[in-house]
């Protein structure tokens, strides 16, 4: 997939990247421009299993995916052409250690113009797509899942703060973070029993997609 993306980019023009989650607040690459942007036909959703960055195989965490449908506000970054190849290589190590995303070039509208930017989308057919999760399941994940970059809750909270800093409103994320914080601050004896955690690949197919 990296080779395909490099071929599609071509290397002759500056590289544009669309961030909708942690890339907004921790890009880990140099850029010469950054602008708020919106893409149509895709939306941000905390519905992707993370077994490395924000969780483990035993206790999967959650990260954002860009799912088809709706629209999404985020940020676009312009990377000079001379640094594009190195940037893509570093980005792949961070975002694609197991090849979970479907990289796509999306049309992004900024306050100044429209640009074609690379974004990491998620297919609903992917084994890493969570499907619908109950509030109890989200609360359990937020309370327990930690990976090499920290906890799923820290990831969600940091993303929400950064979105708000850029005047981007995400009602679904705000509700989940509020839910998690309320559950974690509740007295221990009033907490509901945690849902079962299944080993990878053993969850009943009519309840969870792992």
Describe the structure.
The chain has 210 residues and is of the alpha+beta class. It contains six helices and seven strands. A three-stranded antiparallel sheet has the order 1-3-2. A two-stranded antiparallel ribbon has the order 4-5. Strands 6-7 form a two-stranded antiparallel ribbon. A hairpin with a 4-residue loop joins β4 (102-109) and β5. The chain is globular, with a radius of gyration of 18 Å.
Query: What's the shape?
Result: globular
Helix content, binned percent: 25-40%
Number of strands: 7
Runs in which pLDDT lies below 50 for 5 or more consecutive residues are: 197-210
The strand order across the widest sheet is: 1-3-2
Beta-strand portion reads 25-35%
Q: Return the structural class.
A: alpha+beta
CA-CA gap between termini = 23 Å
Number of helices: 6
Over all CA atoms, what is the radius of gyration? 18 Å
* Main sheet specs: 3 strands, antiparallel
Key words describing this protein structure:
two-stranded antiparallel ribbon; alpha+beta; disordered C terminus; 30% strand; three-stranded antiparallel sheet; 31% helix
